[in-house]
Amino acid sequence: PRQLVWLRSDLRIHDNTALAAAAAKGPVVAVFLRSVAQWQSHGHGANKIDFWMRGVSAVKEALEGLNIPLLHRDIDTFDAAPDALLAIAREQHIDQLHFNVEYPLNEQRRDQAVRETFQQAGINVHGHHDAVAFAPGSLLTGKGDYYGVFTPFAKAWHKHITPEQLALRDTPAVQSPLGIDSDPLPALPTFDDTPVDERRWPAGEHAAGDHLERFLRFRGRHYHDQRDFPKVRGTSELSPYLALGMLSPRQCFQAVMSENGGRLADGDKGLCAWVSELIWREFYQHVAVGFPQVCRYQPFQSHTRGLAWRDDDEGFQAWCEGRTGYPLVDAAMRQLVTTGWMHNRLRMVTAMFLSKHLLIDWRRGEAFFLRHLVDGEFCANNGGWQWAASTGTDAAPYFRIFNPTTQSTRFDPDGEFIAHWLPELASLPAKARHAPPRDMLTTRDYPAPIVDHKAARQRALDAFKALST
Ligand code: FAD
């Protein structure tokens, strides 16, 4: 009996739970539904959508190598998914539908509607948990609640993880040809923004696997010491591949274990620190399910709902364009807009600058990030923003506000990252790049700080204190 696999953000043939389960039951037909209007309404921009579609093209080729045809349908929004899939299921005499679950609320609702439509049509639907080791709801506190704090979540994760959860799923064998052609992939509509050069982010599981291997070989063991320095490129830069499932977390865990004597929680410090980041990723996916208010534009900490965010279009624009007069912030924003990616340390610095120094609603920053990030992913992005804005799970306490200049001297000590992204400051002595003195600025095209750190900090503290009174 024929199986239909609906690919979404799991664009790979290796270690793909839904694909493996389907192939174990019968010949497989795969489908991808492109819903550009829906993705844009979620805020994804050209970088991510372009990378996504290049990933579809890569997986199509890989599937064809297994004689699995990939059908393609354009739908505007998620509402059209049930009918589009049912039509295919009928045309292709499908016995069962398989997909890997996506956890944000709109995706869950879409999948629920598909389940209902298929149930009425008498076709079984299997939602597989693939992007996480623990299905949300299966790792809970002693009281039976979802974890709202990372450290106990990570402890429980390590305590309960089993070899079966980490085992790679079977790659389907080459099947007998079904006599069905894959659909040609239509060109993408043009976007307002031009996507970043594809050589910066080659798509597909081959590229992802190469990246992983190189990271573990050359940088994995140094990760703990180098991960905070943006100029060093000490992190894996695998986030776009993980976000679209061109790489699975299991593949990452397995690769770590083979380098680290079969262990994830102890052994090499660098590798263990990296594992912990992968668990953060999983944590935020659980948070999106356990606390669905975060998917509805609400803060995780409900008492922060009334926070008096400032309406400051000029400040927001300066932040977006990298013109705040704080070089590390500005360099980071230029990295984001130019490459579609930003170093984690700088995501924290820039997000805190927007939400604390400018006291601008974090949701504006969240949307701007999503528009530019090639790795834009709701759960991690929302989690990161709410962390920085002190409205989230495990958030930075509101009074611990990064000083952007101190962050700069600590994490870009020689001002090299700044000089790379702000060539207008490159000729300054290294030490002057963190906070260029005004007399140097007048001759150069670089703005003075748009806010004073101390005053801005106090304004943020006052706004947060006003909440509890
Ligand atoms: P590495 O340091 O090599 O980490 C390995 C992997 O672990 C990453 O690829 C990523 O999948 C995961 N990971 C690492 N840190 C985190 C984290 N803090 N939260 C969740 N997962 C993590 N990550 C995204 O994938 N998409 C986003 O849209 C996103 N938005 C963010 C917004 C803000 C404000 C902040 C503070 C963080 C955000 N992150 C996001 C998390 C993190 O910054 C990126 O995952 C990381 O910088 C990606 O680089 P890397 O692949 O080199 O990470």
Automatic annotation (TrEMBL):
PROSITE patterns xrefs: DNA_PHOTOLYASES_1_1, PHR_CRY_ALPHA_BETA
Domain Photolyase/cryptochrome alpha/beta: 1-133
EC number(s) stated in the UniProt entry for this protein: 4.1.99.3
PANTHER family in the record: CRYPTOCHROME, CRYPTOCHROME CIRCADIAN CLOCK 5 ISOFORM X1
Organism domain of life: Bacteria
Cofactor(s) listed: FAD; (6R)-5,10-methylene-5,6,7,8-tetrahydrofolate
GO MF: deoxyribodipyrimidine photo-lyase activity
Protein name (record): Deoxyribodipyrimidine photo-lyase
Keywords, in A-Z order: Chromophore, FAD, Flavoprotein, Lyase
